[in-house]
Fold this sequence. Notes:
By secondary structure, the protein is of the alpha/beta class. It is built from ten helices and 14 strands.
Amino acid sequence: MSLMFQVIASGSKGNSILISSPRTHILLDAGLSARELVRRLEKTSVNARQLDAVVVSHEHADHVRGVGVLSRRFELVVHLSQGSLEGLDPQIGRLAGHQVFQPGRAFDIGDLRLHPFPISHDAREPSGFVVEHAGVRLGICTDLGVVTELVKARLQGCSGLVIEANHDPDLLINGPYPWHLKQRIRSRHGHLSNIDSLELLKCLYNECLRSVVFAHLSETNNHPELVLENSRDLVNNPRWEKVRFQVGKQHDVTPPVELM
């Protein structure tokens, strides 16, 4: 195994991704209760006691809900930006340890190298990530209101991608959300639509790409079948025939993906 990842939860009710090399295991975000995270990890090849660290993309509750309890219970260092640290809800409580990273500057956890980069979202200092091991790259980018040239540049050359596909524009506009929330989601500091997600993917194709997971779907303004239907042109394109497409689940873990 070179680099493995598995989406533990994905959506507005909580987000978390397990990322592993043969000897290092990290959790990117801990947006469920610690008890639920432990339970879901039992469905994977890595249990909570085997984790080496937790990495936080930003301080919103659906990304950090369980991070305090998880850190204290298993004595895990939490890696996060200074803005995310300052923005943590006091109810998160004490962290067993923390390490501040700077978006734009790579850092290591075990034999994993993480490259955080700034993204556009209504948080203090949110980050996307490329996680690298033995030359294999996994790109993770959710909760971004707009795809910048920096995002495109950082995600080039990845073998695996976890990309936001939050909403269908028509479902959002015609749905039950209040207008101010619709505006926030559609803004440059909100979330990517299915259309935006596909346009980003088209820019990121490379010969090494083997796996794409669409993530952070809205349960109100999107559904997995719609995401996959929208991506049919890519799925049926011979150029993309070696790429496996999945949709991250809110209420269960998705199958693991091994990148070589």
